UniProtKB/TrEMBL annotation:
UniProt xrefs under HAMAP family: GTPase_Era (MF_00367)
Residues that coordinate or bind GTP: 27-34, 74-78, 137-140
Family: Belongs to the TRAFAC class TrmE-Era-EngA-EngB-Septin-like GTPase superfamily. Era GTPase family.
Keywords, in A-Z order: Cell membrane, Cytoplasm, GTP-binding, Membrane, Nucleotide-binding, Ribosome biogenesis, RNA-binding, rRNA-binding
Gene name in the database record: era
Membrane topology: Peripheral membrane protein
Organism: Streptomyces coacervatus
G1 as annotated region, ranges: 27-34
Domain Era-type G: residue ranges: 19-192
Domain annotation KH type-2: ranges: 223-305
Region G2, annotated ranges: 53-57
Protein name listed in UniProt: GTPase Era
Length: 319
């Protein structure tokens, strides 16, 4: 078993050819895939939350290096689907891992391997041509003994399924441990070639989508049970406010926060609208930072009945 620690970091030789390619992060919901993507990119390109099934589409984050361009594809957590949305998300993951140069399988250090992980590993075993790196996430949450046991269990899992991990790398995205090392280990597995994205591009997410995601992230905070799954956000319109002096622009953004049932409305809006207001304030700050311009954010809550199970509604919401 080759478990990596920072001390064994390979040094990039200047004679090495330039490489460019795609690596996806897969794993159960909440494993830390999006947090790791952001840590590698050095900026938030994917929203994160302390709840499963936060990511709902593939998000590309681009890492620019002297020797390589590494395009990370963050995917939704693979899970047992209970809705049509869940099925769609799983399809997206399977399509993605069939297309990338490297697969990073994220397993949290603080949770023992479960049936969900085994299920994913089994599917990965059938993708023979693509190198698979096991990434043990959230190492800051465990002691060294627990981490060692997890590393052994993961190595064992590969053996049981008849393959070797290209690497097994423990990382902490929150504690910034071994994140750079992970990139160093992925790069040699990418094909040789020139950069695929212009320098400076950190993601190919459309602005409108990023804005909707930032609003959803703020709306997810503090909500529990089924409600996080019920929330969807769509930016309807973005228009520069007319009659503003050139040095004082204002961007009007109108967005809908969708929920599935009328009974959820009260929770999202809060007493006297207090909760929705907080969601607006919090996301507006992030949107302004993203766009570099002052924003007037107008949020409306709408019911899209059982949208997670309704093909027509799903289409309308972009799934
Ligand atoms: N302590 C600690 N927490 C982490 C770390 N990485 C992620 N988390 C937390 O784990 C939770 C889930 O993180 P996400 O990055 O949203 O997980 P995900 O795998 O993208 O989840 P889905 O999109 O739902 O599949 C968040 O609360 C993160 O802050 C880490 O390195 N250390
Ligand atoms: Mg995610």
């Amino acid at each position: 078993m080759s478990v990596r620690s920072q001390s064994s970091e390979p040094s990039a030789s200047s004679a090495a050819p330039h490489r460019a390619g795609f690596a996806c992060f897969v794993g159960r919901p909440n494993a830390g895939k999006s947090t790791l993507t952001n840590a590698l990119v050095g900026q938030k390109v994917a929203i994160t939350a302390d709840q499963p099934q936060t990511t709902r589409h593939t998000v590309r984050g681009i890492v620019h290096r002297e020797d390589a361009q590494l395009i990370l594809v963050d995917t939704p957590g693979l899970h047992k689907p209970r809705t049509l949305l869940g099925e769609r998300l799983n399809d997206v993951v399977r399509t993605t891992w069939a297309e990338v140069d490297v697969i990073g399988f994220c397993l949290p250090a603080n949770e023992k391997l479960g049936p969900g992980d085994r299920f994913i590993a089994k599917e990965l075993a059938s993708i023979k041509k693509t190198p698979k790196i096991a990434i043990v996430t959230k190492t800051d949450l465990v002691d060294s003994k627990t981490l060692a046991e997890q590393l052994i269990a993961i190595d064992q899992l590969g053996k049981e399924l008849g393959f070797e991990w290209a690497e097994i790398v423990p990382v902490s995205a929150v504690g910034d441990k071994q994140v750079d090392l992970l990139a160093d280990l992925i790069v040699p597995l990418l094909p040789e070639g020139p950069a695929l994205y212009p320098e400076g591009d950190l993601t190919d997410e459309p602005e409108q989508v990023m804005i909707a995601e930032l609003i959803r992230e703020a709306a997810l905070e503090g909500v529990r049970d089924e409600l996080p799954h019920s929330i969807a956000v769509v930016v309807e319109e973005m228009l520069p406010r007319e009659d503003r002096p050139a040095d004082k622009p204002l961007l009007d953004i109108h967005a809908f926060v969708y929920i599935e049932r009328p009974s959820q409305k009260g929770i999202i809006i809060g007493p006297k609208g207090a909760r929705l207001k907080q969601v607006g304030i919090k996301s507006r700050k992030q949107i302004e930072a993203l766009l570099g311009t002052p924003v007037f954010l107008d949020l409306h809550v709408k019911v899209a009945k059982d949208w997670q199970r309704d093909p027509r509604q799903l289409r309308k919401l972009g799934f």
